[in-house]
Amino acid sequence: MKHIESVNNPKVKQWRKLLTKKERDKTESFIIEGFHLVEEALKQGEQLLEIIVSDQVGLPPRWDVSSTPVTLVTEEISKLLTETEAPQGIYAICRVPSKMGEALAQEGKTFLLIDAVQDPGNLGTMIRTADAAGIDAVIVGHGSVDIYNSKVLRSAQGSHFHLPIIRGDLHEWIERLQGKNIPVYGTALEGASEYTDISSGESFALIVGNEGNGVAKDLLSSTNSNLYIPIYGKSESLNVAVATGILLYFLKK
Amino acid sequence: MKHIESVNNPKVKQWRKLLTKKERDKTESFIIEGFHLVEEALKQGEQLLEIIVSDQVGLPPRWDVSSTPVTLVTEEISKLLTETEAPQGIYAICRVPSKMGEALAQEGKTFLLIDAVQDPGNLGTMIRTADAAGIDAVIVGHGSVDIYNSKVLRSAQGSHFHLPIIRGDLHEWIERLQGKNIPVYGTALEGASEYTDISSGESFALIVGNEGNGVAKDLLSSTNSNLYIPIYGKSESLNVAVATGILLYFLKK
Lengths: 253, 253
Description:
Two copies of one chain form a homodimer. Helix content of chain A is 34%, strand content 21%. Chain A is α/β, with parallel strands linked by helices and 253 residues long. Chain A folds into two domains: 2-95, CATH 3.30.1330.30; 100-252, SPOUT methyltransferase, trefoil knot domain (Alpha/beta knot), CATH 3.40.1280. In chain A, the strands form two sheets. In chain A, strands 8-7-6-11-9-12-10 form a seven-stranded parallel β-sheet. Chain A has a five-stranded mixed β-sheet with strand order 1-4-3-5-2. In chain A, helix 6 (120-132) runs parallel beside helix 7 and helix 6 (120-132) runs parallel beside helix 10 (240-252). The interface between A and B is large, with 36 and 36 residues.
């Protein structure tokens, strides 16, 4: 097992660069941290490139890492890689699934389309929720926070390794889905139907949007219909991840 | 209008102390920040004690502050009061509703009971969701983050001023609610019914619990029945605020 002790080692510099979107895009790879996420990557296998672990921390004996490169690093190096306040000392470098995910997504029947959601905790929670609801693929449009942002990854709790999460143009996806007779539902406060009035079938796509402005108007005008969740009390709206959960579980049943 | 320019002014010290739970409990008051929250407090009226605004920031002309003390402060003082990275320069001191809220809650028909939820963003989002779903009162049990923590207040987006949010002993509340023939539903992964199998009436109480451990076993054993939300995909669970939204909107309809 390799052991890196110098913070100036070029590998360390390369790993750290993955904390930026620019480098993630360039190398089509990303960094994850924490036992749970690394274990999810290990279980899935295909995307995992290497594991990095602090020499003060052990790998759980149940993990089979026989086909994964593992590098030991000092605590000092470990702390350079974290974006959390209480790092667990374990990291992995993973590959962006790219084309395979796209191909898989094409075969799906149920989709979540995300328009310009900017809070990483919200985006991660929405991905986790789509996974729980058994959705086949999540399409993240322009103007959203990066899919591989560390907080998105943490909030999604491993769902990145469970279903295709794809960047895409939502206009193109709406057209493509409608071409396959998959009904596309937007979410809107005006000119929309109460969500419980929809009788959904086994295929559907739901579009949810930006925390402040909702789904863009030009997207809403190309959906099959638009839905709203009634507000019975005095709050102005629901959190976007909560709204996503209510709608996906309603459409799914 | 009073204008405070010294960071050593005793008022400033007193306001700052409200960033701690200890002082909030002692004085039965709390501090809020940002235009939206202060406006919600102003609309509700009863709990608002005073408004504090940076002399670099104006009050919106539509606000009627004729019956509320307003104090101008310097930007330097304003920054001492904030817990955000981009403060808006406006704050208010509010009173904890205490007994009145408790009395109102007693008359309710629909309740959310929260057991040991520790993330302030989750607790705030759950309060906001309960408000949206038209729930009559939220009871927060021991072991949860403080109701008046600044991040709970921000995530709840003003719902603290819309419905009673009460600290209480959940065992006592379950007994009290069942005494009024209000069915109490726990949430659990084992020994529970799928939530869609329940036919709910116009009164109900839902208990949701800690992010990692769920609702305490001794609470689950005193409910009328316990519910679970099926996981159709590969994620292990739903975020607690998302689960709360799915269940409350299902029970409410």
